[in-house]
Amino acid sequence: MISFKSRSGLDFSGNAGVRYVRTGLDSFGTTTVPNQATLNISNPYSSRCAIAAPPAGAPPGATPSTPGGVCNLGPTGYALLQQFAGVNSVNLYNQAKNSYTYWLPSVNLKFGVTRNLIARLAGSKVLTRPDSALIRNFQQITIDGNGNFLSTVGNPYLKPATAWQFDATAEWYFSKVGSLTVDAFYKDVSNFFYQSVVSLPLQNNGVTFPLLTRGPANYNGHGKIKGVEVAYQQTFSFLPGFLNGFGFTGNYSYIESSGLPNSFLNGGAPVTNVAAQTVRGSLPLEGLSKHNVNATLFYEKGPISLRAAYNWRSKYLLTAADVIFPYTSIFQDASGQLDASAFLNVTKAIKIGVQGVNLTNTVTKTLQAYTGDPAQLAPRSYFMNDRRFSFILRGNF
């Protein structure tokens, strides 16, 4: 890292440098093929799938029926499933090795336009390694209600997500504790993580079955993030009397993101080919709302400390693919929450107070693209978080 600054009248400084990163991974894991007992297919088709009389208490006119599930495979498919599973479970052991290296340059520039106005420019390449939960070397196999195999896997071959990011910031300090900041930013993200759903074959006992497999993958396209943030903070010390203890801090950000693949523009049908379905640009990046607002009003004077904070964000993508069929994308609806606290310093060492969380009693709502089209969303779930109050006694010794 090299630091520099001007020696003339212009207030100019900055730094530039590059980092070298190398990472290695060695992972062992197993795939367990469930046996006949686990799948409840030990008995022959004729008895396992025999027509059953209506249960006691069934409505008048109810007719005998054939069990569903694996029985939907028919006698031939059921026999192949029995051969595939076998009497004893089979553990398939594997070892995965992965390594990667990156050069990560960065540059930061600062310009003192005036005594109270500062401009900053920054550019860098950064990386984010996948969480350990994503790179676990495992495969979990289950069977759905129609007798189709489903699989959940980890991916020890994941690469880190990388991004070129650029920021341009203007900071105006108009008082001792008062500032207005505007930041414009742009990020170009590569190899970001998403949940891919593909059909992969698995062979056992001479029989091959397709597995509808869900697991983490690197997207081979690019994700774009761009936006602007405005932040303001000030203590109102110019007000008379007790009012000069008030202050405010808040920010608003507008973020546009795109590039995450949507595998389900075909109406949510399971994939039937081996290659991952990656329709470019149909979803935003996970966890990013287009509009974000945070506002805090506070009062600090003498022994009294009061604070009320409200945050709100617009709808955002929770996951590109649900963990259960039909594996379509899930969004969290727009929501806001108000929290507040009040504290009193009884002595220099003892403080009492009360905190309230979710005073607006906000209900968290999730939406799902059941048809596969992210423009057509319907309610999926509702979570009651309730209002929560805490009475606090703090001591410093």
TrEMBL record:
Q: What is its main location?
A: membrane
The entry's keywords: Cell outer membrane, Membrane
Spell out the InterPro entries in the cross-references.
Beta-barrel_TonB, Beta-barrel_TonB_sf
Does Transmembrane count among this protein's keywords?
Answer: no
Cross-referenced SUPFAM superfamilies: Porins (SSF56935)
Ranges for domain TonB-dependent receptor-like beta-barrel: 11-359
Any single Pfam family the record assigns to this protein: TonB_dep_Rec_b-barrel
Q: Where in the cell is it found?
A: Cell outer membrane
Name listed for the protein in its UniProt record: TonB-dependent receptor-like beta-barrel domain-containing protein
Tell me the lineage of the source organism: Eukaryota, Metazoa, Ecdysozoa, Nematoda, Chromadorea
